[in-house]
Amino acid sequence: MKYVAPSSVEEATSLLSSSPSAQVFAGATDVVPQLRSGRTAPEVLVDLKKIKELVEVNSDGDKWTVGAATPTAYLTEDESFSHEFPGLSEAAGLIGSDQIQNRSSLGGNLCNASPAADSVPAMVVNGVRAVVAGPNGTRVLDVSEVVTGPGQTTLDDDEFIVEFEIDKMPNRSGDAYLRMTPRTEMDIAVVGAGARVTLADDGSIEQAVLALGAVAPTVVRIPDAEQALLGSTADEETLNAVAAAASAACNPIDDKRGTVEYRKQVAGVLAKRAVVIAIERAEQRNGSN
Amino acid sequence: MPRTHITTVINGDETEFLTEDSTSLLNALRDEVGLTGAKEGCGTGDCGACSILVDDRVNCACLMFAPEADGTVIVTVEGLADSGELHPLQQCFLEGAALQCGICTPGFLMAAKALLDKNPDPTETEIRYALAGNLCRCTGYDKIIRAVQEAAREMRGQ
């Protein structure tokens, strides 16, 4: 196994095109366990962290760009980013220990394609886009279009994500992500729930996006819950409809961390709570901050 | 197998070593550099026994490929003591009996150092979160937490 660390996107894509058995990595927090268990055996390891734009967090007037290999600790430590996207920042901060967060990245969390990846529902509700580089240039995908099933993505072998684009949080909008795990830290989501809402001037909900993790082969949106929230003030009846729609949107597995029934129940509870937190945050973003 | 030449600063000394590309930084430190303080517990980033500082951030050395260390500044548990005098964390672990078999101790010490370097006065909750990536299977965590609190107090001069 050979280690290479290209210093530009072009160098990396040409390396990948000429090496059929290459594995790109950022923090390798999933890649190393997979290598050790024999699940993968690449001939070339391509370290993406020496490419400048992959390890940067920037904000211009309209959007944030987060390099795909940026350690999640950089995001959670970025006060400005965390203030604007508390839900996404908290989701990134739930991935593993401090040791892991100094290595783990949004690009890796997405492309490892675990149904339980914490950052993915939070990226989906925020409409995050992935800029994908390949031999023929770049293309832009919605994060929700990247994963097709456990361990499966729509990226070709010679493609990788350069960065994520995140439009600035509009006024009167807020996001939230909650997850259920048996242990507070260092555990894998039994259920994860992300929510983002935008409020109209009268306080009713103008836009709502909800997504669940760990309850289906990929992250799932909850269109019925989003619909129920529109125009409402998230009164108890509406929140109960959100919970019911969240439970119904689940297609979970039974495993040691939770049964199908338990996951469906918890998905409803977390979706409801995430909406409430997102609304509280939206009320605080009134244009002055 | 061709070996790659790596230049780093380890515990304050410029250090060069040769390694195969697929070797973990942990194994390179132990087998090529001769620093056996960091231990392999799980080999998958779950237990923290191999925790070291890389460019001031705590990392699991088992999850890094040795070539990634080129150009970095590394501190291992061997670099904690200063001219033969134990670091306050080491002294407090010793006095507070915060270890039994000792396999996890180098990792706990490095994770605790990373915490105190950026937060000299952590709450108990902050300590427990900062050490959540380190597993101990014999002492239990309370004595470890208390030792870190005591060391923090001493380092703040209280």
Characterize this entry briefly:
The complex is a heterodimer of chains A (289) and B (158). Chain A has 289 residues and is of the alpha+beta class.
Write a structural description.
The complex is a heterodimer of chains A (289) and B (158). Chain A is α+β, with helices and mostly antiparallel strands and 289 residues long. Chain A folds into 2 domains: 55-167, Uridine Diphospho-n-acetylenolpyruvylglucosamine Reductase, domain 3, CATH 3.30.465; 173-284, Enolase-like, domain 1. Chain A has helices at residues 9-18, 31-36, 72-77, 79-84, 86-93, 98-101, 106-111, 119-125, 223-229, 236-249, 260-284; strands spanning 2-4, 22-25, 44-47, 57-59, 63-67, 129-134, 137-142, 147-149, 152-153, 160-167, 173-180, 191-199, 205-213, 220-221. Chain A starts with a strand and ends in a 5-residue tail after the last helix. With 158 residues, chain B is α+β, with helices and mostly antiparallel strands. In chain B, helix 2 crosses helix 5 (142-155). Chain B is globular, with a radius of gyration of 15 Å. The longest helix of chain B has 14 residues, at 105-118. The relative contact order of chain B is 0.16. In chain B, strands 2-1-5-3-4 form a 5-stranded mixed sheet, with helices on both faces. Chains A and B meet through helix 2 and helix 6 of A and strand 4 and helix 3 of B.
Quick one: how many beta strands of chain B?
Answer: 5
Radius of gyration of chain A: 19 Å
Largest interface: A-B, 26 and 29 residues
Q: Portion of residues in helices of chain A? A: 25-40%
Supply database-style keywords.
heterodimer, A: 289 residues, alpha+beta, Uridine Diphospho-n-acetylenolpyruvylglucosamine Reductase, domain 3, Enolase-like, domain 1, 2 domains, 5-stranded antiparallel beta sheet, 4-stranded antiparallel beta sheet, 14 strands, B: 158 residues, Ubiquitin-like (UB roll), 5-stranded mixed beta sheet, 33% helix, globular
